């Protein structure tokens, strides 16, 4: 499933996540896409209710998203860089993982798509590090990151054929047969960080 943290539908992040997902879908695998900006996701209040009673105090769209996450083998998370970090939408969403039943994260795989206006992929280091650490902590398998610098305008990703092709290739590698991706990822040697200029 794709989880898009940019508020711009049809923008760079959306374009790249969807290029990956379309490629996955071409192999007969069903896909879902969630646009966080369109969802009602409340901020974590740090009340610890989830830790004590196993249930979050918020009753919002997060429950529906978690149901989709449970059904999906691979989560393709996309966020633009905002001030060297993720968008607020993505951070709010990830903060709410605090209240999710931990077993949901087992056997899940996460691929990160990062877009940015600047030309130096180094600007994405905090976001890559954040997700690497989260994945390690929660037992999610971190597949790697597609990092797209130089996305100066909303059409930049669409106008960069090599980038779209790279995204499609990643989608094809992830799900060549619709089967388990563990072995495939390892044998195809996907770049851990697919830095693109
Ligand atoms: C509030 C805001 C903060 C941003 N901060 C950065 C930044 O720190 N570094 C950078 O390279 N680009 C930054 N950008 C540019 C976006 O990362 C870039 O335009 C991205 O491609 C937008 O993705 P989208 O088309 O999916 O919305 C910022 C954009 C906005 C709106």
Describe the structure.
- The structure is a single chain.
- With 197 residues, the protein is α/β, with parallel strands linked by helices.
- It has a single domain (2-38, 60-195), classed as Rossmann fold, CATH 3.40.50.
- The protein is built from eight helices and six strands; from the N terminus they run βαβααβαβαβαααβ.
- Strands 2-1-3-4-5-6 form a six-stranded parallel beta sheet, sandwiched between helices.
- α4 links the parallel β3 (74-80) and β4 (109-115).
- It is globular and about 50 Å long.
- The chain starts with a strand and ends with a strand.
- Bound molecules: flavin mononucleotide (FMN).
- Flavin mononucleotide binds at residues 6, 8, 11-14, 80-84, 115-118, 123, 151, 154.
Rg estimate, integer Å: 16 Å
Q: Could you say how many structural domains there are in total?
A: 1
In what range is the share of β-strand residues?
15-25%
The profile of the biggest β sheet is: 6 strands, parallel
Name the CATH superfamily classification. Flavodoxin domain
The CA-CA distance between the termini, in Å, is 26 Å
- What general outline do the C-alpha atoms trace? globular
Number of strands: 6
Number of helices: 8
Give the low-confidence spans: none
Bound molecules: flavin mononucleotide
Helix content: 25-40%
Overall CATH architecture: 3-Layer(aba) Sandwich
Structural class category: alpha/beta
Strand adjacency order, main sheet? 2-1-3-4-5-6
